[in-house]
Amino acid sequence: MAQVMEKNAQDNWWGEGEADRPEDQGNADLFDHESSVIAYNKSPFAASLPWLSVGAFVTLLIQGTALTAPGGLELCFMEGFNLLFVGALLIWLMDDAKLGTRISVDPTDSRIWVGHRGFRTELEPKLIIEYESSDYVRIMTRTEPGREGGTATYRDICICQSGTPPKTISSTNGPLSKSRARRMGKSIARAAGLDYRKK
To answer: Which of 17, 69, 161, 191 has its Cα between 20 and 30 A from that of 168?
Structure first.
């Protein structure tokens, strides 16, 4: 669940591991834990809940069908498929290093940081954007080709300034992406002392 405008003092959620890419190394040393403000925070557990719900639903569905199986072979096949599905889902969730997200704002140095972590990985802040007082936050919508010939809609939380392309802080998609992006954008704008504009 998002924690809005919470001070980032004495918080050990940020990791001290190596950065994912060579060009990001050293950014963690610039991160100021004392002056930073958490604008958005979603733990790996909270991010995995929708997937765990899917796993539980599929398990219940398979177990209900298995009870009416006419023979032992069909029962073994259903139970094996259930174990394989749940096992693959858990392995995928455990290996996803970008499951959790935290966005922090350092108003002292006018910097926005973002980091990801998984169940088995530590989170390291990375410098994403340096902003100015004349900038503003805006949600922009884009579409990309999806599965089976459809399209996927993404909401980008951006820092905008006149005369330059928008700088994307984070993106979200899904059924609740519009309200989630709006909530994140307003929180980031409030933490950074910037305007939030709908258009």
So the answer is: 17
Domain that residue 170 falls in: 131-199
Quick one: 156 and 75 in the same domain? no
Integer Cα distance of 87 and 122 in angstroms:
23
pLDDT tens, the chain, 199 aa long: 334 333 343 333 333 333 333 333 344 444 455 557 888 888 889 889 988 998 899 888 887 777 776 767 777 788 888 889 889 999 999 988 888 889 999 988 899 989 888 888 887 777 688 999 999 999 999 988 877 667 888 999 999 988 889 999 998 888 888 899 999 999 999 999 999 998 7
Apex 190 CA angle, 28 and 20, nearest 5: 20
Classified as helix, coil or strand, 55 is helix
d(CA 15, CA 33): 12
Decide: pTM greater than 0.90: no
116: nearest Cα among 183, 19, 36, 39: 19
Residue 123 shares a structural domain with residue 142:
no
